[in-house]
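Consider the tokenized backbone below.
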């Protein structure tokens, strides 16, 4: 039945969808997009999780209290505590268009979790792409500082080692590893940054588009170093904003000796591949 009366909505559409009407709609959409300008900028916060069930609900609540416009993508590695189940439950009950989930088969590491998240962000049209840990070490209160600074930078790094930044509740050993790690990579790579290993940051999509994400070498802690180095070598503007980093209150750290050793070796590998990294 052609344009049948059985479906009044279809009939209505057919009647009003004249050529002039469609043209006018197009013009309005165009003007709207122009007027919205920067407000239509889309921000995604990527949160990798492994056994973060206790943190995830209060974390979502805090993030959306600080900024209700951002979206969140959780990349969960099949957490034994079923973090992904709670994420999906919250998504369906409260955050349908704001929270998204990628669930991977097993613990594949932080670096590949972020790469999966970056690819998803690029293919879904996000302009600003943030990284954040799930354990409240990265206080959501800073989100708006990142979003303010990214307007005049290509990568904004939350820094514990600039004036106004700091670390709370970490033992001497962990502090030494972190601070030493930054100094070590800064010296070997010639990076003019104070906090090179931190994972609270915000990228402009152009940075991620310019890096061949399939060529990232690191998966553990050196992932952050590698991303900073690649961004720097490509001549992008990097800015550090102070953050106070507090050790997790619940759940367990996934830092291990193996991850630490990988980072030490990786800095040299990165330095030796400088030419290659500049290109891709
Ligand atoms: N998807 C995924 N997330 C991970 C993995 N390892 C750690 N994470 C998450 O990455 C963030 C940082 O890890 P965390 O254990 O807090 O490291 P620490 O703060 O350096 O001790 C947290 O949100 C973890 O749940 C992993 O292999 N896969
Ligand atoms: Mg942590």
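A designed sequence for it:
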């Amino acid at each position: 039945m052609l344009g049948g009366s059985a479906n009044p909505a279809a009939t209505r559409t057919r009647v009003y969808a004249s050529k002039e009407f469609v043209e006018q709609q197009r013009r309005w959409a165009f003007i709207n997009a122009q007027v919205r300008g920067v407000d239509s900028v889309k921000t995604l916060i990527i949160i990798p999780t492994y056994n973060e069930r206790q943190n995830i609900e209060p974390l979502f609540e805090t993030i959306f209290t600080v900024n209700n416009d951002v979206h969140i993508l959780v990349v969960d590695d099949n957490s034994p505590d079923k973090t992904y189940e709670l994420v999906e439950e919250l998504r369906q009950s409260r955050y349908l268009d704001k929270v998204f989930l990628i669930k991977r088969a097993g613990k594949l590491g932080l670096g590949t979790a972020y790469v999966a998240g970056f690819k998803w962000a690029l293919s879904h049209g996000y302009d600003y792409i943030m990284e954040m840990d799930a354990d409240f070490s990265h206080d959501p209160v800073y989100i708006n500082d990142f979003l303010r600074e990214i307007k005049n930078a290509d990568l904004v790094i939350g820094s514990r080692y600039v004036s106004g930044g700091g670390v709370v509740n970490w033992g001497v050993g962990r502090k030494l590893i972190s601070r030493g790690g930054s100094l070590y990579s800064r010296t070997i790579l010639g990076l003019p940054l104070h906090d090179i290993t931190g994972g609270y940051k915000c990228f402009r999509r152009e940075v991620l588009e310019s890096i061949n994400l399939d060529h990232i070498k690191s998966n553990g802690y050196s992932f952050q170093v590698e991303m900073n180095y690649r961004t720097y070598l490509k001549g992008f503007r990097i800015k550090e904003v102070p953050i106070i980093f507090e050790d997790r209150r619940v759940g367990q750290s996934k830092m291990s000796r193996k991850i630490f050793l990988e980072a030490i070796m990786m800095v040299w590998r990165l330095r030796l591949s400088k030419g290659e990294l500049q290109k891709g």
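The pocket of guanosine-5'-diphosphate (ligand 1) is lined by residues 48-50, 52, 75-77, 107, 109-110, 113, 133-135, 137, 248, 253-255 (CB under 6 Å).
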